[in-house]
Automatic annotation (TrEMBL):
This is Mutator family transposase. Required for the transposition of the insertion element. Keywords: DNA recombination, DNA-binding, Transposable element, Transposition. NCBIfam families: transpos_IS256. Coiled coil: none annotated. Belongs to the transposase mutator family.
Amino acid sequence: MIDPVTGEIIDQKELAESLLEQAREQGVSLVGPGGLLAGLTKSVLETALEAEITEHLGHERHGAAEGTNVRNGTRSKTVLTEVGPVQIEVPRDREGTFEPQIVKKRKRRLDGIDEIVLSLSARGLTTGEIAAHFEEVYGAAVSKDTISRITEKVAGEMAEWSNRPLDRVYPVVFIDAIHVKVRDGQVRNKPFYVVLGVTVNGERDILGIWAGDGGEGAKFWLGVLTEIKNRGVEDVCIAVCDGLKGLPDAITAVWERATVQTCIIHLIRNTFRYASRQRWDELAKDLKPVYTAPTEAAARERFGEFESKWGTEYPAIARLWRSAWTEFAPFLDWDVEIRRVVCSTNAIESLNARYRRAVRARGHFPNDAAALKCLYLVTRSLDPTGRGRARWATRWKPALNAFAIAFEGRIN
């Protein structure tokens, strides 16, 4: 860091230590109104505003003016920052043509505050809870209307995200449902479908979120998948779904060469519904050899061992797997690396956990649009780029090679 007056290099650590020592000697707190951070924020903002008006007028303070316009004092303004309310002096010019950029006219908060509001909303906090948070943490009064306006600003961003171009090919696409309480005459659970793809670079890509009503058929799914195709998805190698009416036929109608695979994750998840929480870890350990078996014959043998141990205590689990075996068996034909991607529960379950946490905290939503906004804010918070991308697997290259061999000429 360079001192703007002397031109000497300032050690930032020494500067921070010096400021902290001065604050202690003067009895000034680090945070809160009148605290050290508030004072530094005030100095930085006022310095930036002074630089802006100097550039606007073309001369330094007390310097020779190049025209008729000159400085004309300051006006006090309180802005909400990440360290709380800060009162600053905004410079003015005689002709009133100065338009500050860092703290724009009629703006009472910095952009970082909007991001804090959106982040809290993505965690499921209501407008009242966010307002209380600002009062408690920052000592600042932020109205519910202001918070609502901030969250409403993402509507355009959400529309842009929902129509963004997608990759040409996805090795795997998952279609899953999140159930959300929505007031539609009366409060009821409504499914919101999340379509999640794994890119050729091994990244999770949330392709979109659609509201349903629980009675979706082939026409609904054909519309959703056609929309995805129109956004650039020419090919899907494996589409993973779970017993949604009309969906398999819609998948093959849109992508003729796609292989429809029943969702192993749902099958495993449904297994735990029939057992107490204390037995889940042991069940998972005994079930894993079934869906990781090298062949169907080996899987049947492992399932026989599983059934002999758990069948008496949990007959519904044995019945579940036997009835789903026809849809499950094709999974065993895939290379072990492809199986690892198709059956990777971490990425999906962590995403679902974030969605569920947010919607549970809100209780219910007045309409579909409010629920979609909440789900989008969660998606937005997962990735700084706002695309909801993240690594799917740490060992992606072996999986990519397996896909390239199994789907020759389709993975580029």
